[in-house]
TrEMBL record:
<dbReference type="InterPro" id="IPR014305">
    <property type="entry name" value="RNA_pol_sigma-G_actinobac"/>
</dbReference>
<dbReference type="InterPro" id="IPR032710">
    <property type="entry name" value="NTF2-like_dom_sf"/>
</dbReference>
<comment type="subunit">
    <text>Interacts transiently with the RNA polymerase catalytic core formed by RpoA, RpoB, RpoC and RpoZ (2 alpha, 1 beta, 1 beta' and 1 omega subunit) to form the RNA polymerase holoenzyme that can initiate transcription.</text>
</comment>
<dbReference type="InterPro" id="IPR007627">
    <property type="entry name" value="RNA_pol_sigma70_r2"/>
</dbReference>
<dbReference type="InterPro" id="IPR014284">
    <property type="entry name" value="RNA_pol_sigma-70_dom"/>
</dbReference>
<dbReference type="Pfam" id="PF08281">
    <property type="entry name" value="Sigma70_r4_2"/>
</dbReference>
<feature type="domain" description="SnoaL-like">
    <location>
        <begin position="204"/>
        <end position="263"/>
    </location>
</feature>
<comment type="similarity">
    <text>Belongs to the sigma-70 factor family. ECF subfamily.</text>
</comment>
<keyword id="KW-0805">Transcription regulation</keyword>
<protein>
    <submittedName>
        <fullName>RNA polymerase subunit sigma-70</fullName>
    </submittedName>
</protein>
<feature type="domain" description="RNA polymerase sigma factor 70 region 4 type 2">
    <location>
        <begin position="136"/>
        <end position="184"/>
    </location>
</feature>
<dbReference type="GO" id="GO:0016987">
    <property type="term" value="F:sigma factor activity"/>
</dbReference>
<dbReference type="Pfam" id="PF04542">
    <property type="entry name" value="Sigma70_r2"/>
</dbReference>
<feature type="domain" description="RNA polymerase sigma-70 region 2">
    <location>
        <begin position="17"/>
        <end position="81"/>
    </location>
</feature>
<dbReference type="InterPro" id="IPR013249">
    <property type="entry name" value="RNA_pol_sigma70_r4_t2"/>
</dbReference>
<keyword id="KW-0731">Sigma factor</keyword>
<dbReference type="InterPro" id="IPR036388">
    <property type="entry name" value="WH-like_DNA-bd_sf"/>
</dbReference>
Length: 302
């Protein structure tokens, strides 16, 4: 491909097939929609500028993934870009159960997802590989381990190609993959499911109780080990009692016209929240059978 450089229109046509999957790939590694979009833009710009050096020894798709993965690793090394400022709450919250590390996490709207069958070597289902527990677990791994796991266990690139992408050996890839799998298994949740009548009924009951300020009604829908996180705030509350203490404070604040509109993100039920018609964040629920096991309130995300 190095003898005659295509024009910009031809290049866009050539790479448009891969843009969506590159965006999801960057999101998995970075955990941020904003950073993922920037990484894809930088990837395509670098590919355009370096197209005359592409000799076809790997597929175009592999070449683009190599550029995208290394762009993501560069972002992860720049900790200044990774952590948004901690928001100041308009009330005095109770002491959190812990302060979370992954404050840059953003939800991935289901409308951006496209169904695809995982390869035969995939360790994680397509839906599981985008749910919040999986994405959060990736953020807690060393960056090269996270990239290795995504490339091998989600995208099923051969070990040799992954080694070439990351500039290392197949032996090193095998070691990083083993360590990444062991660490990520601690964060895995039940696989997400498609919307069902049971899910819709549960989430509707939750929204009704929440918007009506019915604390007991909300708590009845939660598992004993439920957790609440609020990126970009680091505050996390674990267990029904801790969440009850937090909600008791927040629900005591008068709020006019608080609404929750059903949507989906990360293959999970979600709500777009509004205060008096103004955006008030995105709430994503993690379900466990007929109860709610996790609430993630993305304070700044519409």
């Amino acid at each position: 491909m190095g003898t005659t450089a295509p024009d910009e229109h031809a290049f866009r046509e050539l790479t448009s097939t891969y843009r969506h999957e590159l965006h999801l790939h960057c999101y998995r590694i970075l955990g941020s929609l904003t950073d993922a979009e920037d990484a894809v833009q930088e990837t395509l710009l670098a590919a355009w500028r370096g197209l005359d050096t592409f000799e076809g020894r790997s597929s175009l798709r592999t070449w683009l993934y190599r550029i995208a993965t290394n762009r993501c690793l560069n972002v992860l090394r720049d900790t200044g870009r990774r952590r948004p400022p901690e928001p100041v709450p308009p009330f005095d919250p109770p002491e959190p159960s812990r302060r979370g590390e992954v404050t840059w996490l953003e939800a991935y709207p289901d409308e951006l997802l496209k169904d695809s069958e995982p390869g035969p070597e995939a360790r994680y289902s397509t839906r599981e590989a985008v749910e919040l527990a999986f994405i959060t677990g990736l953020q807690l791994l060393p960056p090269r381990q996270a990239a290795t796991l995504v490339l091998r266990d989600v995208l099923c690139f051969p070990a040799g190609e992954v080694a070439s992408m990351l500039g290392t050996t197949e032996t090193a890839i095998k070691g990083m993959l083993q360590r990444a799998r062991a660490s990520l298994d601690k964060h895995r949740a039940r696989a997400a499911h498609r919307p069902s009548a049971q899910e819709r009924a549960l989430t509707r009951r939750f929204a009704d109780a929440f918007t009506e300020g019915d604390l007991d009604g909300v708590l009845r829908l939660l598992t004993d080990d439920v957790w609440l996180a609020m990126p970009p705030a680091p505050h996390e509350y674990h267990g029904r009692d801790a969440i009850a203490g937090f909600l008791r404070v927040t629900m005591a604040i008068p709020v006019e016209a608080f609404t929750m509109t059903p949507t989906r993100a990360n293959n999970q039920p979600a709500f777009q929240c509004r205060h008096d018609e103004e955006p008030a964040g995105l709430m994503v629920l993690t379900l466990d059978g007929e109860r709610i096991r996790g609430i993630t309130r993305f304070l700044d995300q519409k």
